[in-house]
Amino acid sequence: MKKHIVTGYGLASAKDSAMARTRHRATLVLCALAILVTSQPANATQRYKWWASEEVRQELQLTNQQTDQIESIFRSLRPKLKELAQVLQHEAEQLADVMHTMQAEEWEVTLQIDKVESARSALSKTRTLMLYRVHKKLSAEQLERLQDYWEHHRSSGDARSQRRR
What we know:
Blueprint: E1 4-7, E2 10-13, H1 14-44, H2 54-60, H3 64-101, H4 106-136, H5 140-164
Antiparallel strand pairs: 1-2
């Protein structure tokens, strides 16, 4: 004898109800994953312009020419970074949709995962090349000072976050 459950949509078997709960949970997990995946790259294109900070300029002893060159590199790649971040977001949303329906074949899900990872890779590669071009404009001493600056601020940030806990 089949067990039936009364739902907001009428009678459903226990198996159908369990399947609906599983789909709902999967949808929630996928939405959370999509938010996590897509929020980070969007922020990555809007990071702090450290070369424009007077504190950093003095610390690294950046010349006006270096600052202008770094700004030019940033401005030239910013549209591409934004575009790639949007592509990544789109592909991640497509993956969430494919997985949400739970009707796709495994090869279709795999294909969409490959699209997401390809988009993430393109964004990462462009950002890394931008950083490389920026670093080429700095002397070895300036790079070392920049590294020290980031380590100091990272450890200060870690200390602040530890105090809040």
